[in-house]
């Protein structure tokens, strides 16, 4: 059970994330300082650094929550499902509840606007892609564990997750460029792109 002190710390952390997102999406990531974020929450710069290593860490804070949400969704899939099917179902069903995870910290519309900031800010996009690579490794190890495989001896878990991760990255890019920036839109786009994985890998693309 959380103590009062722990709840207070979590509220401060969430307030800092929300303030950072508001500033990043209105005046830009590069033009926002740590001092401005701290001032918006009426705390010191020192307090900010108790929670975050820097602006980048705050900018990607909600991403970590969504990654954990999907990771747990994959972990919960029935063991008889093939790896790609388990990943597909976990992601699509995860989108149905992801808003609750996001809204525990920031409004969904603010998170979605922040998504575009990440895509358009080179330093944040690089950090996002770096984290995505780390996340893929974690998922590959989870899939290997599900299948009873040695992830370092059998390449299939990493290959499956790499294919899945590439599809998700294409989906992110296409979605962030669209006007209808909402969770339902990315869920639909994700489903459509995942449906193409099998044909893209197995079928002849050449027109007859």
Fill in the keyword field for this structure.
208 residues, mainly alpha, 12 helices, 75% helix, 0% strand, globular
The number of strands is 0
What is the percentage of strand-forming residues? Answer: under 5%
Structural class by secondary-structure content: mainly alpha
Number of helical stretches of at least 4 residues: 12
Mean pLDDT: 88
Low-confidence stretches are none
| Overall outline | globular
Biggest sheet details: none
Order of helices and strands: HHHHHHHHHHHH
Protein described:
The chain is mostly helical and 208 residues long. The chain is 75% helix and 0% strand. The protein has 12 helices and no strands. The chain has helices at residues 4-27, 34-41, 45-51, 55-59, 61-75, 83-95, 98-103, 108-120, 122-147, 156-176, 183-194, 197-202. α6 packs parallel to α10, α9 runs antiparallel to α10 and α10 packs across α11 (183-194). The longest helix has 26 residues, at 122-147. The relative contact order is 0.10.
């Amino acid at each position: 059970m959380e103590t009062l002190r722990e709840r207070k710390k979590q509220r401060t952390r969430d307030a800092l994330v929300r303030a950072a997102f508001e500033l990043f999406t209105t005046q830009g990531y590069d033009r926002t300082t740590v001092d401005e974020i701290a001032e918006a929450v009426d705390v010191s710069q020192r307090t900010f650094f108790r929670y975050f290593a820097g602006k980048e860490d705050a900018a990607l804070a909600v991403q970590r929550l969504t990654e954990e949400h999907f990771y747990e969704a994959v972990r919960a899939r029935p063991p008889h499902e093939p790896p790609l099917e388990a990943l597909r179902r976990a992601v699509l069903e995860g989108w149905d509840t992801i808003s609750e995870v996001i809204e525990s910290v920031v409004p969904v519309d603010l998170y979605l606007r922040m998504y575009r900031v990440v895509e358009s800010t080179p330093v944040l996009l690089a950090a996002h892609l770096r984290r995505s690579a780390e996340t893929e490794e974690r998922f590959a190890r989870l899939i290997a564990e599900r299948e009873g495989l040695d992830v370092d001896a059998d390449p299939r878990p990493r290959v499956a997750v790499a294919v899945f991760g590439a599809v998700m990255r294409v989906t992110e890019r296409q979605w962030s460029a669209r006007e209808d920036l909402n969770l339902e839109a990315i869920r639909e786009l994700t489903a459509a792109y995942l449906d193409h994985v099998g044909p893209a890998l197995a079928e002849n693309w050449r027109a007859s």
